[in-house]
Design goal:
Belongs to the Nudix hydrolase family. This protein has helices spanning about 5-20, 40-45, 95-105, 155-160, 165-180; strands at about 25-30, 35-40, 50-60, 65-70, 80, 85, 115-125, 125-135, 150-155. The chain has 5 helices and 9 strands; from the N terminus they run αββαββββαβββαα. Helix content is about 30%, strand content about 30%. The N and C termini lie far apart (about 45 Å).
């Protein structure tokens, strides 16, 4: 890669990070009731309660789609996500957020999400009301290069034991497996 290409990539990554930091995020109270909004960077800095979606993608063979996060991600850079998803924007419905994130990160559109499963993740300064959905997908994937470095299909037990798995997506998968018995 030439120095010009590297410089262009760094500028693009910086502008994506700046845009992401300036997204308005739906804030909630400790009972998951909407109570305002904040810029993403402020939400992270102040450890505000917020909502996030988690979409666990499996194929018809039962393999789970694991994602290697890019190094530019603000939380768990380079980690392994066991679900697509992200924070819910201000005024956005949770299911719509899940559909948006699935389309943005993996290029999966117009699929039926499973029934929502709610959980709470409160660890290391994160205060999240999570909404987990499951989906079966056997088609092609279109990765969002700013967020997803790589994907691979793996048995669920193996995926959950991988080093570097993000703790919130691990909890989401555990909860979904408990409910659906897979």
């Amino acid at each position: 890669m030439s120095m010009d290409s590297i410089a262009a990539a760094n500028v693009a990554e910086a502008s994506v990070s700046q845009v992401t930091a300036r997204e308005r995020i739906q804030l909630v109270d400790a009972r998951n009731r909407p109570c305002g909004s904040a810029w993403r960077a402020q939400m992270r800095r102040m450890s505000y309660w917020h909502r996030a979606t988690y979409i666990v993608v499996r194929n018809s063979a039962g393999l789970l789609c694991a994602q290697r996060r890019t190094l530019q991600k603000e939380v768990f850079p380079g980690g392994i996500d066991l679900a697509a998803g992200g924070v819910v924007c201000a005024g956005e419905a949770v299911r719509h957020s899940a559909e948006r994130e699935l389309a943005e990160e993996l290029g999966i559109r117009k699929v039926k999400l499973g029934k929502e499963l709610a959980f709470v993740y409160r660890q290391d300064g994160h205060h999240i009301f999570g909404s987990v959905y499951g989906v079966v997908h056997d088609g092609p994937l279109e990765l969002q290069e700013e967020e997803v470095a790589q994907v691979f299909w793996v048995e669920p037990d193996e995926a959950m034991a991988l080093p570097g798995v993000t703790p919130d997506t691990l909890l989401a998968v555990r909860r979904l497996r408990e409910r659906e018995r897979w």
